[in-house]
Amino acid sequence: MAFMKILLTNDDGIDAPGLQALLAALPAGWMPIVIAPVGPQSGCSHSATTGRGVRIEERGENRYAIHGTPVDCVRLGLHTIAPDVKWILSGVNHGGNLGADVHYSGTVAAAREGAIHSKPGISFSHYKKKTREFDWHNITRYTQRLLAELMSRPLEVGEFWNVNYPHLGAEEPAPRLVDCITDRHPLPLDYIPDAVGLLYSGDYHNRARAKGSDVDVCFGGNIAVAKLSI
Known about the structure:
This protein has about 230 residues and is an alpha/beta fold. About 25% of the residues lie in helices and about 25% in strands.
């Protein structure tokens, strides 16, 4: 792949290991511009900061920490910091963004904001099983493969890719890339009383899933790739 200037962001914060895994996956010779929230913004959906200024911290060459949301990062990048980037890459999120998650996710929102401004993009997320730690080295290897594959595919203006990696054990076979649809089941609704009121306790891992959907593919041990559109 030829030289490209790429905007990298996430919703876990600029120091998150998942962002470093994504950065490490880029081909030599590309120019990554890291514009990411100063701290975690998970679950912020497509919110953007208005009515007050957004502080920008320079953290080194082509590296900026934003006191705002992932959407703020993309907006400031396209308006001020790096308006000539060719792609928006968001992630790798510390947790899945499957099915209904795409409406709540700041990771997915960053890629969607790019698509709104006619920039192609990919959001990357890593489903997590409670009993396992992330293997970011493997995720970097998978992402290298995915970048070469997905960036060679055509996208219409306003479209972007949403990728979800499974959480595999060392004994399990390497995952396949599977194109799929986004599951339409809602997240399970369950709340328990706590000191404040009611605390969400829905079981993410036992959520409903349609056969062949992104939830089904990822929970089944493969890499789910869905094309989303604004």
